[in-house]
Design a protein that fits this description.
The relative contact order is 0.21. Helix content is 80%, strand content 0%. By secondary structure, it is mostly helical. The chain is built from three helices and no strands. The mean pLDDT is 94. It starts with a helix and ends with a helix. Helix 1 runs antiparallel to helix 2 and helix 1 packs parallel to helix 3.
Length: 91
């Protein structure tokens, strides 16, 4: 179903953000610029939020209200989780 596909993209987004967070933490530990690493992580977060929003054409003839709500909720969760991960990189 469309909702399960949205969920799949959300899970992939979270996994990728967590992977990038780990890579950024390792780079900061090696002396790389924290702001640069935060920018990289922010780029991934923005990419996935935007990617989820493009899923509105997942159903033939346009998405149902239920699918649109699932898309908006998934994008909001990825953004909130991403913001939390980004804040943890600032420490």
């Amino acid at each position: 179903t469309a909702r399960s596909l949205v969920g799949e993209v959300e899970r992939a987004a979270i996994a990728r953000i967590d992977t990038e967070l780990g890579l950024s933490r390792a780079e900061v530990a090696r002396g790389r610029d924290r702001a640069e690493q935060q920018d990289i992580l922010r780029t991934w977060i923005d990419y996935y939020v935007a990617a989820i929003h493009t899923m509105t054409d997942i159903e033939v003839g346009g998405s149902s209200a239920e699918t649109n709500a699932a898309i908006d909720a998934a994008a909001a969760r990825v953004k909130a989780l991403g913001d939390q991960r980004l804040a943890s990189l600032a420490k």
